[in-house]
Amino acid sequence: MKKLFFLIILAACVYGVLSYHFILMDSSFKFLKKTHMTLDDTFVDARGSKKAELLLNPALLKAGARDLVAKDSLTIGK
What we know:
Blueprint (H helix, E strand, L loop, with lengths): L1 H18 E5 L4 E5 L9 E3 L5 H4 L3 H6 L1 H7 L7
Parallel strand pairs: 1-3
Antiparallel strand pairs: 1-2
């Protein structure tokens, strides 16, 4: 019974890692649903000036990182 419980918890963790971007912002921790199940850009540090790097990553842009940056009150001019 313990092994089954452990396998279910492990499977849920693996699914979460494959399905979501975990983004550390200045004052919070954001979750962003990935467009494809992959391990790329799973944990992203966006504190301080690194927020602009979110907008340079195509996978994060497709997932909606532009909205996260806008909600976090960072403005980038053209």
